[in-house]
Specification:
mainly alpha; 3 domains; 3-stranded antiparallel beta sheet; two-stranded parallel ribbon; 22 helices; 8% strand
Length: 556
């Protein structure tokens, strides 16, 4: 199915990994490997895009759905993804591989037909996963930089060093390794399609398991999660208006399988692929119309009378090709005449639409309250709400919410506000370093345990956090302005002499309990440059706390 020789030759022919790229993710994610770049260019050609998961508001929150915790909002593996909609999801907590993976889903599409059986839906869901999985484990590994400890896919493990290496761009192609990965990709594709053929012939699911990957199981889970939605009246109304055979999806498993093979060959060999759209702008407008139309039809299912008629009229305008902006404006007006969900929720699509507020301030505020509560309190003491300004400036980055807010605060509110935000965010981002704690202190050399952070502040953030919590210190509003200062561009000042340069090591015990240790500025310098230069008593104390561990552990 994949011509390995042709694919290898296409990889060995030097070509710059350049766009144009789709919107909704850092461009770096698509220049990490030749395969990712090919996916990115094909996706950009069709106007595909990603929606920011944290900016996008769900119309309804299902019972038992994940909630914010320490600035992290997990994404439900099956509940969020809709194969019929060529708009992927950008989650800040996911690794950079997800960008090309999500766009690849958009290139493949899905299959649906009226009255489709659960096995049809499960098999369609399984087919839709094949090329994104082949990309993840095989094609994207060709030319992908990794840290010295890793040489291949990590499955569920996460390595920040690998992420940092890959951000430098693609590595030179190693022909032997590339050939092996291409052959493995071809084998996986053939075996998966053979198992699907048996499924269709026997009328029961037949698995093809590779490592921890079982797409048959994934397909069944997708059908279970989405079957009610795909069989609903709202979806039938949506399909009648937006489902376009060969332009966004397919009505048969045979057609979807042919698309799967075509996308796999295009990504592996750099060949051509039939387009979804006439041009990027037309494609993007259509995907947005499909997305907003689906949300309005979902609302219509919960509405009756004249309001339902008006909602359907808005959907029909989108289906006829009218831009989303005017339709969104008319939904806002409709909310004044009928009791409908807030436009702040319905229109929070998670990507830019001209003239429409598409980022959920409420959703981000909920998340920030779980990670920087003291910082928010300090600002609101002064009558300043920092969340709308942060949300407007927040860009797609694989960085936790609290860290992104702290970085933004360094420019918007330099001084105590930014320092407190950085401290609070760090408390939620440090890890336990479990492996090092298991392996113990015996070995050669010393270093700071992984997962811990050494932070420097112009003040004592522990004392500031306690004072804000007790009400001893409150924020005061001042005239906002550019440049450094207590208030900066946000206009928040803090009374009192807070100048107290502080260095902290923030870590977690194996039990998960926070560990915060104050060190002198000089010791902080030594920890960064050469921990072995620490005074013996300091070194021993930090080692006793499990903060300093060997560079190499003993095998005897």
């Amino acid at each position: 199915m994949i011509d390995v020789d042709a694919a290898l030759q296409s990889l060995l022919d030097p070509a710059p990994l350049q766009g144009p790229w789709p919107v909704g993710l850092p461009s770096m994610e698509l220049s990490r490997s030749p395969a990712a770049a090919r996916v990115g260019r094909l996706a950009a050609r069709d106007g595909l895009l990603l929606a920011h998961f944290e900016h996008r508001a769900p119309l309804e929150v299902p019972e038992g759905a994940p909630t914010w915790s320490a600035g992290v909002l997990p994404e439900d593996k099956y509940g969020s993804f809709q194969h019929e909609l060529p708009i992927g999801s950008f989650h800040p907590g996911h690794r950079a591989k997800w960008g090309a993976h999500e766009l690849c889903h958009g290139l493949v599409g899905g299959a649906w037909r009226p009255g489709a059986s659960p096995l049809f839906l499960a098999t369609a869901g399984r087919l839709a996963e094949i090329v994104p999985v082949v990309l993840w484990y095989f094609l994207d590994e060709i030319g992908l930089r990794r840290c010295p400890l890793h040489t291949g896919p990590l499955f569920r493990a996460f390595c920040p060093d690998c992420e940092a290496e890959a951000a430098h761009g693609a590595a030179p192609i190693e022909p032997d390794r590339a050939r092996t990965l291409l052959q493995e990709a071809d084998t996986f594709l053939e075996r998966e399609l053979a198992a699907i053929a048996r499924t269709r012939r026997l009328g029961r699911p037949v698995s093809h398991v590779w490592g921890s990957i079982d797409l048959c199981s994934d397909g069944l889970a997708y059908a279970d999660a989405h079957g009610p939605r795909l069989g609903s009246g709202a979806f039938a109304a949506w399909a009648e208006r937006f489902f376009d055979e060969g332009r966004s999806g397919w009505s048969s498993l045979e057609a979807l399988e042919a698309r799967v093979i075509a996308v796999a060959r295009a990504v592996a060999c750099g060949g051509s692929l039939a387009t979804w759209a006439d041009d990027p702008a037309q494609g993007r407008a259509r995907w947005i119309a499909m997305d907003l139309g689906a949300r309005l039809l979902e609302l219509r299912e919960l509405t009756e009378g004249e309001a339902a008629v008006e909602l359907l009229a808005l959907v029909d305008r989108l289906a006829r090709g009218e831009a989303a902006g005017p339709v969104a404006a008319d939904y806002v007006a409709l909310c004044e005449d009928f009791v409908l969900p807030s436009a702040d929720v319905v229109l929070a699509l998670g990507y830019a639409v001209e003239g429409v507020a598409t980022r959920s301030i409420e959703r981000i505020e909920e998340g920030l309250q779980t990670v920087v509560p003291g910082t928010l309190e300090l600002c609101r003491d002064a009558g300043v709400d920092p969340v709308p300004a942060f949300v407007a400036a927040d860009e797609a980055a694989r960085v936790p919410l609290g860290e992104r807010f702290a970085r933004w605060a360094e420019h918007a509110a330099p001084g105590p506000v930014a320092e407190l935000a950085r401290y609070e965010a760090a408390l939620c981002s440090v890890q336990a370093g479990a492996r090092a704690r298991i392996l113990g202190p015996k070995g050669e050399g010393i270093r700071l345990i992984e997962g811990a952070r050494l932070l420097r502040f112009s003040l004592d953030p522990v004392a500031l956090a306690a004072a804000v919590d007790s009400g001893e210190i409150e924020g005061r509003r001042i005239a906002a302005g550019p440049g450094p200062g207590a208030g900066g561009g946000l206009g928040v000042a803090v009374e009192g002499d807070l100048d107290d340069p502080t260095a902290l090591i923030v870590a977690r015990e194996r039990s998960g309990e926070l560990l915060i240790v104050d060190v002198s500025p000089g010791d902080a310098d030594r920890i960064e440059r050469d921990p072995e230069a620490l005074e013996p008593d300091v070194r021993d104390a930090l080692a006793q706390l499990g903060l300093l561990v060997p560079r190499r552990w003993s095998l005897v």
